[in-house]
Queue: 4 jobs
Job 1
Amino acid sequence: MASVRSLMLISTAVGVVGLSVARAQQTEPSQPGTRWSDAQLREAVATARVGRKLTPKMWPNGARVAVCLSFDADSEAPLLRDGTTSPTALSASDFGAESGVPRILAMLDRHQIPATFFVTAVDAMLHPDMMAAIQKSGRHEIGIHGWIHETPTRVTAAEEERLLDQAVESLTKVTGKRPLGYRAPSWAFSAVTLDLIQKKGFLYDSSLQALDEPYEIESRGKPTGVVELPIDWTLTETPFLGQNGRMPNPAFLYQLYKDEFDGAYDERTMFVLTLHPYLSGHRAPMHHLEQFVTYIQSKPGVWFATGAEIARYVKEGKP
Ligand SMILES: [Zn+2]
């Protein structure tokens, strides 16, 4: 049986723990925004905002919708970034370069349509055959997706710039052309990513999600001249078909994409789809992707274009 004295000691100890938790909450709130002033809240969102909407009155040749099929052609780079060298894990990502991209390119050839491939410089270096295959038809664009899929929010500003410079230089050597389009690895802008996009002279970004039509990005109240071709977490397959995805059948996913496309068609704006060859290059999703492309092609007034073609058109009024 516990003595009165030991019960008192226990209750005192509990009291001390309770007090220290309360103090910790006061000094390190887990929800810091709850204490921000109006000015701090405005400042927090000011880095990259929606500026002018850029959907033109009419797309080239009187088309009513612009369609950009984009592929984040990630292979081993994101795993290597984290130091993973397991051949099994690497092989599942290598599928993207070895099987996914060739299958996607064959499908695009059958339909004679262009696409944009965002690649990391490391994946480009490891897969010269994939890079040559993407460039073969002359229809496709290659945009940049980081050096080794580094997460911009997890490196210093100086390191982010060093990696971006290194990536641009390396990818320019591989393709013979400086990339015009930027898509942030993991779609994650840091506080300086937009400044770097401007400084390095990119025509457009495709990482933000504030609209589902093209817009000019504004930063701290000023237009940046950078075109945004927005993407969306519903218009990609990783949350559904990826390792933690729970999509039993890609048919459901393509029903969602079809409804999104129909909406863009009705609104006369733009439809951007982002797929990953290491997932979407498998047989079942490829079957649905091809059916989807056939459906889009059956509609009159669709302009299939690369991201750079769309960005140039909305910025300069010509394809
Ligand atoms: Zn990626």
Job 2
Amino acid sequence: MANRETSANSSAGTAKIQPATGKLGVMVVGLGAVATTLIAGVEAVRKGLAKPIGSVTQMGTVRLGKRTEGRSPLMKDFVPIADLNDVVFTGWDIFADNMFQAASTAKVLDKDLLQSIRPYLESIQPMPAVFDQFYVKRLQGTNVKKGKNKRDLADQVRADIREFKKKTDRQVMIWCGSTEIFLEPSAVHQSIAAFEKGLEANDPGIAPSQIYAYAALSEGLPFANGAPNLTVDLPVMQELSKKNNAPICGKDFKTGQTLIKTVLAPAFKARMLGVSGWYSTNILGNRDGEVLDDPESFKTKEESKLGVLDYILQPELYPELYGDIYHKVRINYYPPRGDNKEGWDNIDIFGWLGYPMQIKVDFLCRDSILAAPIALDLVLLMDLAKRSEELRGIGIQEWLSFFFKSPMTPEGLYPEHDLFIQSMKLKNTLRHIAGEDLITHLGLEYYD
Ligand SMILES: NC(=O)c1ccc[n+]([C@@H]2O[C@H](COP(=O)([O-])OP(=O)(O)OC[C@H]3O[C@@H](n4cnc5c(N)ncnc54)[C@H](O)[C@@H]3O)[C@@H](O)[C@H]2O)c1
């Protein structure tokens, strides 16, 4: 009989995926705590000094076929993902420190580990950045490009990309830079033509992150956004993405508190338990915390962190359970903790006959330790998307929602925030492009 658990899905992709041969060049914008933890971590894994824990592409498996078949290859063996030995890093920062100095300043990784890979880290030097303090109030740096207008700056980033193209076979760009001030889309973002005019005219609606994204997408590079900035969720970027087969995806890495939120909230909804309040507060003392201490950058982060509950709990469908929820998110800069964030959640829920209960979560996490494997997975999967005939031209890669606080969707489609729906979507997309049956978990055929 038809394999019902694995779905009689006939839509299994037959389109080709080019092999991951040659060097994958990863261009990182912002070489701070997350980026140095990523770059040093990849080198440590390559040298056999540590394991890539937290990386879905390196450690995760994908079940294929029926449960009785025992086929669960590693994701990296199932689809052609670039080998870590083929990954080459470069990037930009407003500080000229090499990766050893920057990782030492970030104080995420042990000195011993950094010493053991010191020559490698010292060999990576940031290129001068496109930066304007108007968009990140708390930072000031000297390793900054000069240009007669934003168009000139975009051309300089494109020249950097072209240089890197000579040294590597394929390239992706990822934003690991600071959170910029809150911006809203305007007329300048509505088309490529309007944006290019805006670059010439130094339109204030064009932030540095948009200049990098414009340069990447114009050069055909996929672009992933680790921060909550308004960077690629703009018509101009979607147009460029499709036009140049340069995939884009959501924004703001889903690392600590929001990860837990998108696990707990679906559980309450699945059990039809009500939620009356959710108070989330954080203390962190790294440079990201300092930047987010500025109200304008915090606003950008707040919007991203607040969005998830509404979409998961669907108050419009369940007004008695979630129609009157009080949701608050706070981030407090507290230097003694450095990169080791503490996130508290107080959740007021109610059950049978409306009786109230409380849940307290205290997550003593390490921000960049959680973010680095996400950044790695994103660059590897965006490169895979670029090599997939079926995915490269669709623009937004919604199947990568799993990694983001603010997943991206086409206009009119709400995003999926539930971590387990996102995980299923990710794995089913890989099954689909590899020509395997999708898994629906129906499973009735085991009882025939
Ligand atoms: N670590 C996490 O858990 C996590 C989770 C989600 C999102 N993020 C986001 O990731 C980003 C990086 O976080 P981090 O902890 O590494 O911060 P960080 O402050 O250590 O590093 C950011 C780096 O970006 C640089 N930068 C700023 N603007 C730049 C520009 N225009 N061009 C080039 N470089 C620029 C800064 O100089 C700094 O070195 C932040 O936006 C943060 O909000 C982090």
Job 3
Amino acid sequence: MKIGGLQKVSLIDYPGKICAIIFSQGCNFRCPYCHNPELVDPDIYGECQSEEGVFSFLKKRRGKLDAVTITGGEPTIQHDLEAFVKKIRTLGYLVKIDTNGSNPEVMNNLIKKKLVDYIAMDIKGPIQKYGTLTRSQVVEEKIQQSIASIMISGIPYEFRTTIVKSQLNLDDLLTIGKLIKNARLYVLQQFIASKTLDLSYIHEVTYSQLELEAMKQKLMKDIPDVMVR
Ligand code: SF4
């Protein structure tokens, strides 16, 4: 497992739990607004942390932390993700995985083996816009397969979209609403320009709180639980 970073505690990343966050290094997408460029662009990768060090930390924090979130980058491109997750669970932690949905086989395997307790999947936009939004070659069916298998998994999950105003309009969001109709939870994430993969995106903005709330109300026709974060 290529570990690009460890956040030792978070009160907000795993709903209702105190967690550590492990950042995997490497991603198969190139979203221009990505706020973890050092985990995505090989030219600026930092040095990886040792698994040993991370597990030594997790062993010490047993009883103080409830869970571990594995995020990225994109965790599902790590060839040893399953073994890594098993080791974390052996220590008694719940596991949340954040994914871009490009590898439904990997997620399905974890779901079937009951190795994941919470899934957060990015929905980048309407399926037809994925190539443009992620600046990558995306197999659209794989995104749809991920959505379908997560929705029937029986595991708590959320779908979420980071909203850059120039990229997504109301119609796009309503199209997403149809794509994930009756999902358990849909989160509209405000884009915050701190660091971006494409430096020109540092000047981009999200919608106002009022605009996002209005979008949320419209989306609730298709998805009962929508939140703005
Ligand atoms: S936003 Fe997520 S999927 Fe997109 S490049 Fe960054 S880590 Fe990859």
Job 4
Amino acid sequence: MSFETRTTEMLGIEHPIVQGGMQSVGYAELASAVSNAGGLGILTALTQPTPEALRAEIERCRAMTDKPFGVNLTVFPTINAPDYKAYAQAIIDGGVKIVETAGTQAVREIWEMLKPHGVTILHKCTAVRHALSAERAGCDIISIDGFECAGHPGEDDIPGLILIPAAADKVKIPMLASGGFGDGRGLAAALALGAEGINMGTRFCATVEAPIHENFKRQMVELDERGTNLIFRTMHNTARVAKNVVSDEVVAIERAGGAKFEDIQHLVAGKRGKAGLDSGDVNAGIWTAGQVMGLIRDIPTCKDLVERIVREAEETIRGRLAKAVA
Ligand SMILES: Cc1cc2nc3c(=O)[nH]c(=O)nc-3n(C[C@H](O)[C@H](O)[C@H](O)COP(=O)(O)O)c2cc1C
């Protein structure tokens, strides 16, 4: 029972299931668990305070799995930017051969650094035009992230049901479908829409190995498909986060009109969200999650989750779909 696609071949993985980079979650515990389950686990570079800490985290992950894993490097539109190139150098020095990138145009400099080292670049984006320009620039795989996704869905508001086949019609390199995937029906649908695998964020947060407080995992089971808020809409830097008292307040301030970043800064501060993640207070700050919470009903191990998704996808295709063909 397995799916073989260009992505499984290029990434050297058993199942076409990738765990997207996740700030404050993408540590070695989760990445190695996903890789050991036959998917692709990904460490998040900027979750480490320094490039040196990232080097150590790469070593830690390598000690926890002998399977391939990747590192995410996200280039944010921010004034006090971290030293992205130093993080990229740590990835190269650490011998990591798969990198997931995301973010602003400045990411191109990172691609140029990585490519001579034979790194497979998996670029995550939210628009067909961005996927095509990443393909032209020599990226190897596209993760196309629909409006359903946790984090930054872009400003076009195109859901996966349209975005994935629209991209598949134009992009020639392999694509992973991202945003809203959490079960085998989703994997079967992604393959039907022209993708060659799925990328999941939120679903992997609600697993035994995700290194976050149990309260957040339980909240992901509790919340349904209406359990997210879109913040920073008025600032054209939309982020999909879990619905809670803090994100409700941000939305209310933005809806009132004329809000500047300074008006909401105290609510959205990263420190506040991180303190909540550590203490287990789901209302302490904002935290990232997607609409797929409507499909999350348990907290399995990564191995059980990956195996279940593959089994369900196969049953869907060989059973229900095959039977429906007259
Ligand atoms: C807690 C959390 C943190 C995230 N942080 C990042 C990040 O730092 N960089 C990035 O490219 N994507 C980030 N994402 C997005 C995921 O990599 C992935 O694209 C997204 O979760 C897919 O949508 P889904 O949650 O519906 O599966 C994050 C997602 C979550 C849930």
